[in-house]
């Protein structure tokens, strides 16, 4: 087991993200819950992960599935109680699994007592916890748009003021320029550290230092000053792992966020690779260019080596399922899921596995009236208004909606995929009879066991943590090939990211290399559709 009191332990770790609402329902109300997670800790142990990042479990009206918090110190009742949470932290720890909580520090719910107080009047001490500007109805302070559609300003007639919200109307932005706000948040974080939480994912953390008058949301001038203060005040223990969600981060920024002196965070989620297949708006897709994807990863690998730390992910609760997006969720579902995993897990950084990714779950073929996510629902309404045909809107939703990742976890082939004995809060993907955990457990060639081996490899060969990355064949349209090297070990990661056979010549020095993992039997020859293998030269064969 890793020594989690030491700074940097997370460099050898793999984390697993749980979206609690959709993970496992233990009491038949159709909503996943903490006892459900508890009952699957052995499953996570078997996979071999070192930590679970829980999407928010705090009290919330659930306008944005928990990213709208009304009490940071309470558990949302359908998820369970504080005792359940304490038990989860303790039971996970016994298995060497750290619980990482999701901190939403940029905004609260409009039902948070702070906001309720703020609404009482300009003189109320909580009024300045949020971002207000004077104004008249129909004349917002400026034309800034919220991420989920509509204006970023909401008028409150009683106060003759607008409040600022970068996300939904029900998610008013906190005013980080008020030192009281920051102090309260740090205090709240310590409440969870004292309960045994070993790390945090920090939601849209690059947005906290906003300056709406200058139309600045991410990367405000005071951002890093605030983050260093947060780190010093709330995360003094060297072993706490922190990962910030930072859509605005480029490599230079990321070396500040993840500076090796620990003055800010352990690492950030950056999204440059994720945006490569995006057209004009989030909902418009352009084909992914593999050479661009490779160059993007290469830059992140090279520029953070020794100067910062990468997080590695292809899936999360806000993204479509990668096997549908960049793999092949039809004939080569299993091969392509493994190939994408090998491509990612061979790199330098800390990998994150999103629930269901380890069994190759796919996008959900929902109908337009079945979407739950407010971002998608708003998009559907907005695009209908703009005259888009329903067929086009549906195609966008099916390709890009966050709901693709939010259908219930597929545990077995019984009704509702074993997710609930009741009526699931959200439709189960109809392919659950084929794609489920039970089937994966029974098949030694399943995606699950491939992930299990990849996760174990990261712990046995230091080159996965330390090796320097070199991209080979940068212009090849189908092959993603790279090496990782230290003085003692060398890895060659070969991925055929296409459904066609491809010629491939082993680079010098790897002729007699051992195969650490592969998704096809036999030796390296012509690469078969979505073939992936990791070869090794060094002291540990
Ligand atoms: C982050 C979360 C997303 C949420 C948003 C607002 O991007 O990952 O799910 O809707 O922040 O909190």
Structure description:
The structure is a single chain. This protein is α/β, with parallel strands linked by helices and 541 residues long. Among the domains are: 113-164, Oligo-1,6-glucosidase, Domain 2 (Oligo-1,6-glucosidase, domain 2, Alpha-Beta Complex); 367-400, no CATH class; 467-538, Golgi alpha-mannosidase II (Immunoglobulin-like, Sandwich), CATH 2.60.40. The chain is 27% helix and 15% strand. The protein is built from 15 helices and 18 strands. It has helices at residues 34-38, 41-47, 82-94, 113-118, 179-194, 223-234, 251-257, 290-304, 322-325, 333-345, 374-385, 390-400, 437-442, 447-460, 463-466; strands at residues 15-18, 51-54, 58-59, 71-75, 98-103, 132-134, 153-156, 161-164, 199-202, 241-245, 267-269, 311-312, 350-354, 468-472, 479-485, 489-496, 514-518, 532-538. An 8-stranded parallel β-sheet has the order 11-10-9-5-2-1-13-12. Strands 14-15-16-18-17 form a 5-stranded antiparallel β-sheet. A 3-stranded antiparallel β-sheet has the order 6-8-7, with no helix packed on it. A hairpin with a 3-residue loop joins strand 15 (479-485) and strand 16 (489-496). Helix 10 (333-345) runs parallel beside helix 14 (447-460). The radius of gyration is 23 Å and the shape is globular. The model has no long low-confidence stretch (mean pLDDT 97). Alpha-D-glucopyranose binds next to loops.
